[in-house]
Automatic annotation (TrEMBL):
Broad class of the protein's primary localization: cytoplasm
Alphabetic keyword roster: Cytoplasm, Nucleus, Protein transport, Transport
Name the UniProt record assigns to this protein: NTF2-related export protein
Gene3D superfamilies documented for this protein: 3.10.450.50
Top-rank taxon, per record: Eukaryota
Organism of this sequence: Macleaya cordata (Five-seeded plume-poppy)
GO cellular component terms, A-Z: cytoplasm; nucleus
Length: 136
């Protein structure tokens, strides 16, 4: 890797890390705040159910299952898609403590796109949660 591409990788890694920290901080404190982090026509999938549009997504995420949850990121990886206009594909692995005090492992994949302000926002997301005895 050249010095230039290494610096670009480090910068992108930092940008994504900061986005994920903000996303999960907001999610854990008050999921309604995620409204600003999703694109208007975003698509979110969980357990085979699809939610379209940021209003529907945030309504679901603010619901009973995710009320007062706590995420912990174990690791993430990303791949830039063709060019910046296609966004970045990010996969996150971690744990989530739900409002019923059960801890689950989770995997969440995002397609992040720059918004009109040049900041990353969620265009697509798939969330999978697993009990300790289930395999990811």
């Amino acid at each position: 890797m050249s010095d230039s591409s290494s610096a670009d990788h480090d910068q992108m890694n930092s940008v994504i890390n900061n986005f994920l920290k903000e996303y999960y901080r907001v999610f854990d404190e008050n999921a309604v705040g995620l409204f600003d982090l999703y694109q208007d026509d975003a698509v979110f999938s969980m357990d085979g159910t699809k939610f379209v549009g940021k209003r529907n997504i945030v309504y679901m995420l603010n619901g009973y299952v995710f009320n007062r949850c706590a995420h912990s990121i174990s690791k993430f990886d990303y791949h830039q898609l063709n060019n910046t206009s296609h966004g970045v594909l990010v996969t996150v692995i971690g744990t989530i403590r739900l409002s019923d005090y059960k801890t689950r492992n989770f995997s969440q994949t995002f397609r992040l796109m720059p918004n009109s302000k040049g900041r990353l926002s969620v265009a697509n997301s798939i969330l999978s949660m697993f009990a300790d005895d289930e395999k990811m």
